């Protein structure tokens, strides 16, 4: 092979190598995807498909499902029913935001009455109160309520309980007239930041521990390392003598 032929061969070889490299790069860019937490594949050290490991959400088997501690229907005038419930997150380092729930009301003989839906946050190691006032229940009496949660839709993520600054109820006072009772609760905020628009729910128990009344209010602001008062009122007397009052701040996750 002459020198000129060898030169042409080397040039063609180099051009071929460049062409192969270019085609390879185009193929990789077109058909290869960088692993992510939403690609439907268990990769990049994930514990499950798009969960655990470097992904923000935990896998289902890494957190215990929440427990509905109780659901109580309370008559509220003609054709209306209040519902109060408590849901516990026993996980010490797992939280979930905007968890959907369903409350179903039944009358005598398990006759379906009404269904309402909502969402709540589940901070770690917390029993979360739920209060839905004035649900339309028609002419049904002896209403029973049930709160249900679909565990498969909960997106758990790591969140330590000791990182939450929880407002604390330091005092409650029952007042007002018998026909229009009133409860004032002093809520303290130990945080260095103010707490705004805090929802608070009150549960009134009788001597047997049953919830006989409930209400909710919004506290506009609790100053940093300060206190504010949450006030709850009713337009009718309690059905029996109150024996215990619980005021429960509703924690919202950041």
Topology at a glance:
Elements: H1 3-31, E1 67-75, E2 80-89, E3 94-106, E4 112-122, E5 126-136, E6 144-148, E7 157-158, E8 168-176, E9 181-189, E10 195-205, E11 211-222, E12 226-233, E13 244-250
Antiparallel strand pairs: 1-2, 2-5, 3-4, 3-6, 3-7, 8-9, 9-12, 10-11, 10-13
Structural notes for this entry:
With 254 residues, the chain is mainly beta. It has two domains: 63-161, Immunoglobulins (Immunoglobulin-like); 165-250, Immunoglobulin-like (Sandwich). It has one helix and 13 strands; from the N terminus they run H-E-E-E-E-E-E-E-E-E-E-E-E-E. Strands 3, 4, 6 and 7 form a four-stranded antiparallel β-sheet that branches. A three-stranded antiparallel β-sheet has the order 1-2-5, with no helix packed on it. A hairpin with a 4-residue loop joins strand 8 and strand 9. The radius of gyration is 29 Å and the shape is elongated. 25% of the residues are buried. The model has no long low-confidence stretch (mean pLDDT 89).
Please name the CATH topology of the largest domain.
Immunoglobulin-like
Strand content: over 45%
Distance, first to last CA:
76 Å
Helix content: 10-25%
Overall pLDDT, averaged?
A: 89
Shape summary: elongated
CATH superfamily of the largest domain: Immunoglobulins
User: What composes the largest sheet?
Assistant: 4 strands, antiparallel
Descriptors:
Immunoglobulin-like, single chain, 2 domains, mainly beta, 1 helix, 254 residues, four-stranded antiparallel β-sheet, 11% helix, three-stranded antiparallel β-sheet
